[in-house]
Structure to design on (251 residues):
């Protein structure tokens, strides 16, 4: 793989994360501009996004280290610090960071646009995450099991494994494309529900094909437990959307 892009150790992942954030942000702002949000508020919204990304990255690293500590404990080893990241750590803690920054910073000087954000954000997250999976592939992490078929790819220093990173990247880009069409064409406001259901189911299944050891609890990986939480959360979101958020189906 190519983890050291431009000769910098681990820079491939950094580049892909940056490209993912840029792509997601561009789509995000285009949608808001097309749906009546004044451009003068974009600077404040950019600060909200920056804070969210920073918090998300910090907790993606911290949660990954929790995983490493669990794995070390199960195997009777001493835990060690890693700069690797887990998507669920960034998502689960990034969402409240966005909400709090939006509530206590953005709304001080701008009108509410939260319903519009709820519609477009899931597609943007899927696209950004897809770029992140390219970074995983280039870094040679998050690889799959060995299938002994033509689907396996030779990862230097690791051997032949299923490229689950590319499989997930493909799924995320397709899911993101559908969610963006739903948002831009105003087909549905329930894009977050679709995203949570689709991604949690897909991720739960693909985890069985992951070959990198991350420790398991009662036969399931940590990510699969997050999948269960998100799946149940999607059901709760349907209720909240119908009763509290999109009561009249307007944004």
């Amino acid at each position: 793989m190519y983890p050291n892009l431009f000769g910098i150790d681990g820079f491939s992942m950094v580049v892909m994360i940056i490209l993912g954030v840029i792509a997601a942000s561009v789509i995000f702002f285009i949608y808001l501009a097309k749906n009546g949000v004044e451009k003068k508020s974009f600077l404040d919204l950019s600060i909200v996004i920056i804070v969210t990304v920073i918090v998300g990255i910090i907790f993606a690293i911290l949660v990954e280290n929790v995983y490493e500590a669990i794995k070390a404990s199960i195997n009777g080893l001493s835990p060690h610090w890693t700069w690797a990241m887990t998507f669920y750590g960034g998502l689960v803690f990034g969402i409240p960071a966005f909400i709090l920054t939006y509530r206590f910073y953005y709304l001080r000087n701008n009108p509410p646009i939260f319903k519009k954000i709820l519609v477009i954000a899931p597609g943007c997250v899927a696209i950004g995450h897809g770029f992140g999976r390219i970074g995983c592939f280039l870094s040679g992490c998050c690889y799959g099991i060995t299938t002994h078929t033509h689907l396996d790819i030779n990862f230097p220093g690791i051997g032949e494994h299923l490229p689950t990173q590319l499989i997930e990247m493909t799924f995320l880009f397709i899911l993101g494309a559908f969610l963006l069409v739903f948002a831009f064409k105003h087909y549905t406001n329930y894009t977050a529900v679709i995203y949570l259901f689709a991604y949690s189911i897909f991720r739960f299944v693909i985890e069985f094909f992951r070959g990198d050891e991350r420790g398991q609890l009662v036969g399931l990986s940590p990510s699969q437990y997050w999948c269960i939480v998100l799946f149940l959360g999607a059901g709760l979101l349907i209720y909240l959307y119908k009763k509290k958020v999109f009561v009249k189906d307007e944004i």
In short: Residues 18 and 27 are 14 Å apart (CA to CA). Strands lie at 153-155, 159-161. The chain has a mean pLDDT of 90.
